[in-house]
Amino acid sequence: MAQSFSFSTTQLPGTQSIDAWRQAMAEVYYRLDIRSGDNERLNGQLIDWQSDFMGISNFKADAQRVTRRKEAAKADKAEDFVFLFPTRKPMRFQQRGHEGTALPGNVFLVNSAEPYVIDVPDGSENITIKITRESLLGRAPMLDDLCGRANFANPYLIPAVAMLGEQMLRLKPDDDTCKLEHTLVDLICLMLELGREGGAPPLTRPELSSFLFSRICAFVQANAGTHDLTPEIAASEHRISVRYLHKIFHANGLSFGHYLLDARLQRAHQMIMACAGRERINIGEVAYRCGFANQSHFSASYKMRFGVTPTQSAALKAT
Questions:
Q1: Which of 57, 64, 211, 266 could form an S-S bond across to 48 if both were Cys, CB 3.0 to 4.6 Å?
Q2: Nearest-5° angle of CA 129, CA 49, CA 93?
């Protein structure tokens, strides 16, 4: 049975926050040396999910250097492959004589049984997935060669893996979540396999883009009334770049802007149809509640979409 854990240093004073953060990191991951960028305090939040063979965490924190020392790795007598998915800021890493920088939307891999260093910038956030060696090595035999490296995974599946991991953190652990854990492992193996082949399938193939496209569309539908909903916000919510988001919509014959406009118009139309004949409709309020800042723009767009103005639509419904 999986177990969940959450921790924050927000309410802790001064250097006590740094000591508490070190302890929390040790409990979620393993023994690590944490050096804060600010010697006086460290702001950090952790949400964690642990099972017998997997750990998933969402990490938000101030600048720090995270070091896995040789002595700690030897004392722990355990080996996990740790996939780190930066979602807000680039992260630098070193292991096995390799070093690099992983940008948001990418992933890098370290082995917990060996020393490594990760530099975390201010305002950083990531999704981390650690899996026992025994659970992965038989299915992905080249993993040892990938430690201390980035740019080894299929770029279209990276956000899908990170997103599924993040969604699992929101679930209540129960017997059924075991199926999701195995699904996540399957997706990671596919991400590695397609990346190793070096021939990432084109984005227009439905099997690679449909998952993210449907999720983003559902997000837009649910948040169409939000006035400041932008491609940047939608991309950040789904841990992908804005450029990739536009490619997904283009591959499906749409644009983000047109899809958002249609979602808002459909919502407005449903509100008008639901109220017409029963109560007086305030068109300005409908426009505002559906994400339109300008009533005249709303009316013009509505007429172009439905062939009549919002007022005419309500009158036709009432007759």
A1: 57
A2: 30
**What pLDDT, on a 0 to 100 scale, did the predictor assign at position 1?**
53
**How far apart (Å, rounded) are the C-alpha atoms in residues 195 and 159?**
14
pLDDT digits (tens, 9 = 90+) for 127-151: 999 999 988 877 887 888 899 998 8
Residues 95 and 143: beta-carbon distance below 8 Å: no
Concatenating the DSSP letter of every residue in 21-44 gives HHHHHHHHT---EEEESSSS---E
265-289 CB burial, b ≥16 within 10 A, e <16:
bebbbebbeebbeeeebebeebbbe
| Contacts of residue 62, Cβ cutoff 8 Å, sequence gap at least 6 | 36, 37, 38, 42, 43, 44, 122, 123, 124
Name residue, tokens 């060696």. 133
Q: What pLDDT, on the 0 to 100 scale, is given for residue 202?
A: 43
- pLDDT for 207-260, tens place per residue? 556 667 877 888 898 899 999 999 999 988 877 788 888 988 988 889 999 999
Domains (range + CATH), the chain: 3-197 (2.60.120.10), 203-319 (1.10.10.60)
In this structure, the dihedral spanned by the alpha carbons of residues 213, 215, 216 and 217, taken in order and rounded to 10 degrees, is 80
**Residue in this structure with the two tokens 């930066």, named with its chain if needed:** 86
Q: How far apart are CA 191 and CA 41, in angstroms?
A: 38
Strand ranges of the sheet holding 44-50, from the earlier edge strand across to the other edge? 3-8, 44-50, 54-61, 124-132, 80-86, 108-111, 149-150
Confidence class for position 200, pLDDT limits 50, 70, 90: very low
pTM of the model: 0.64
145 contacts 191 by C-beta, under 8 angstroms: no
Cα torsion angle, 6, 122, 131, 167, sign: positive
pLDDT, tens only, 58-112: 999 999 999 999 999 999 988 999 999 999 889 999 999 999 999 988 999 999 9
